[in-house]
Amino acid sequence: MELKGKVALVTGSAKRLGKAIALALGKYGCNIAVHYRLSESEALETVKQLRSMRVKSAHFCADLTNEEQVKAMFESVAQTFGGLDILVNNAAIFARTPFDQLDVNTWQKFIDTNLTSVFLCSRYASDFLSEGQGGVIINISDTAAFKPWAGFLPYCVSKAGVIALTLGLAKALAPKVRVNCVALGTILPPEDYGEDWEREMSAKTLMQRLGTTEEVVQAVIFCITCDYLTGAVIPLDGGRHLR
């Protein structure tokens, strides 16, 4: 896939990893739909940075667990940009959830936010992505899906679901739409996690360090541009899944 002139929607792209992916695609010449739910000022700043690259960009607010809002967002994106070529399902929540404190509402919040949202976005994007030469969906998961953490079970289960959904969507949407997944290790720790935690996580990888946003971007770009790649799950965790 030639990226210049393509239209990409990146969920949760107002800040952090989603923003890095959106800006990288913008540098390659993609026109970018910036999705956010609460971070409007950050979304506007991301749009401003993208427009400075001389690509078209606009921001779209939606609760990705709400089907009507998701449907309306994709219709608005298609109307604004004239179509859609790339969907990156990046938006997610992450938090410690000790099992003895876990309730069904917390469980459902993780499943809805991290998994159902990916289904809804993929479902309503698929009609636009299948037009013309076809498109691509990239899902962001976590290698904790392979080796769940006891204190983060709803998160791990939701990310395992994203991997299963990726494989199923690759079958369901072929050959017009390719669907791939990048399963991350620790890349951008939450801001309230300190240096001791980072050192502990680094020691659990074969590479003895955390990953970088640039490395995530490289993996995402590869998954988008390799036209024969679909149904792939790429573990980007410095080898932690092998420990």
Describe the 3D structure.
There is one protein chain. With 243 residues, this protein is α/β, with parallel strands linked by helices. The chain has one domain: Rossmann fold. It has helices at 16-27, 40-52, 67-81, 104-129, 153-173, 195-203, 213-225, and strands at 7-10, 31-36, 57-61, 86-89, 135-142, 177-184, 233-236. Strands 3-2-1-4-5-6-7 form a 7-stranded parallel sheet, sandwiched between helices. Helix 5 (153-173) links the parallel strand 5 (135-142) and strand 6 (177-184). Helix 1 (16-27) crosses helix 7 and helix 3 (67-81) runs parallel beside helix 4. The longest helix has 26 residues, at 104-129. The protein is globular and about 50 Å long.
Helix/strand layout:
Blueprint: E1 7-10, H1 16-27, E2 31-36, H2 40-52, E3 57-61, H3 67-81, E4 86-89, H4 104-129, E5 135-142, H5 153-173, E6 177-184, H6 195-203, H7 213-225, E7 233-236
Parallel strand pairs: 1-2, 1-4, 2-3, 4-5, 5-6, 6-7
Helix pairs in contact: 1-7, 3-4, 4-5
Question: Can you give keywords for this protein?
Answer:
single chain, 243 residues, alpha/beta, 7 helices, 7 strands, 45% helix
* Overall strand count: 7
CATH level-1 class: Alpha Beta
What is the CA-CA span between the terminal residues?
Answer: 35 Å
Shape estimate: globular
Write down the CATH topology.
Rossmann fold
Mean pLDDT: 96
What is the tally of helical segments?
7
Rounded radius of gyration (Å): 17 Å
* Biggest sheet character: 7 strands, parallel
The fraction of residues assigned to DSSP E strands is 15-25%
CATH architecture: 3-Layer(aba) Sandwich
Strand order, largest beta sheet: 3-2-1-4-5-6-7
The CATH homologous superfamily is termed NAD(P)-binding Rossmann-like Domain
Q: Which regions contain 5 or more consecutive residues with pLDDT less than 50?
A: none
Q: What is the string of helix and strand elements? A: EHEHEHEHEHEHHE
Structural class: alpha/beta
Helix content: 40-55%
List the domain count as a whole number. Answer: 1
